[in-house]
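Input/output pair, single chain:
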Amino acid sequence: MSLLPEHLLNGYRQFIEGRYLQETQRYRSLARDGQAPETMVIACCDSRAAPETIFGSAPGELFVVRNVANLVPPYTPTGEFHGTSAALEFAVQALKVKHIVVMGHGRCGGINAALHPDTEPLSPGDFIGKWMSLIEPLAQSVAGNDMLTHSEKQTALERVSIRMSLANLRTFPCVSILEGKGRLSLHGAWFDISTGELWAMDAQTGDFHRPLVDVDPEPVAAEQP
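Output:
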């Protein structure tokens, strides 16, 4: 019996014989000096929406935490387990990241579950259902709009939940204080798996735009005669 699935071993072989050889010094520097990423990405654990792939990042550039539906819970300093909050605390307080990006994606299974709370749980623990209850009021509001098709409801909740997670980020004192001082910025993004399009949220309006398509480039100053 193999120690790991064969496709993982094949992938590792390609990595160690390819990318690692090309970036050996970078890996050694990261091992020696530690990581210092400027950006944290809170993304979904969906295998189709990997931030490192979407943003073409090198090792050590992104600090990524992934959970079902890329949700951020509100600040609740209880004695329970808080995986996402722990990662956020480390990124902000220890790594001192300058940016936090909440990135959702199309066709999210967690969002679909939130829109259909009466679906039979996958297990007696119903961990997904309990987790997605974080956005239950939003899901009820979107699901109750009969003028929207199912796919429109799906996309709407995917994007609205990003705005909710950004609001929840600001309930963490370490985040709100640093943002107020201009030392930390928050961003929302949504990735369309089917088209590869990335949409970014306008911090002022909450609208989503394609930054490489919809936003006009900086005007080029005319050359002086």
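The chain has a mean pLDDT of 95. The longest strand covers residues 99-105.
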